[in-house]
Write a structure and sequence with these properties.
Order of helices and strands: HEHEEHHEH
Structural class: alpha+beta
Largest sheet: 4 strands, antiparallel
Helix content: 40-55%
Radius of gyration: 27 Å
Number of domains: 2
Length: about 120
């Protein structure tokens, strides 16, 4: 009987220690997770004189296809959707020559229920 009791206590102790180690592993995993990314609309206004030079800069980074341009319609602005962890990270996609004029807008989706709740406030 003593052997069975000792064996049970030992098994329980191993389970307890294993559970603590498992929980600590989850805490470490949670703290090492990357910050969540959000969708940003990046807007890079520029002058007609800066236009082709800016497009050349973007082309050198192989990102030209990621941008939409209003330039052909007289709106000298580049637009791009990016996934980023912050506004600053989103703006890092803009060439330095016009980054000071650029903006990044964090976008969110709204459900019908959220819209209804907003109307009630």
């Amino acid at each position: 009987m003593k052997r069975v009791h000792s064996f049970t206590v030992a098994c329980f102790a191993l389970l307890l220690i294993g559970g603590i180690a498992f929980a600590q592993g989850d805490e470490k995993k949670a703290s090492s997770e990357k910050p969540a990314k959000a969708t940003y609309l990046v807007e890079a206004p520029h002058t007609p004189e800066e236009c082709l030079g800016l497009m050349d800069e973007v082309n050198k980074t192989k990102d030209l296809g990621q941008w939409q341009w209003g330039c052909m319609d007289g709106n000298h602005t580049g637009y791009r959707m990016v996934q980023a962890t912050s506004e600053e990270a989103a703006l890092a996609n803009v060439p330095e020559s016009v980054r000071g004029k650029a903006h990044a807008y964090k976008l969110t989706k709204m459900s019908s229920k959220e819209l209804e709740a907003a109307h009630k406030h």
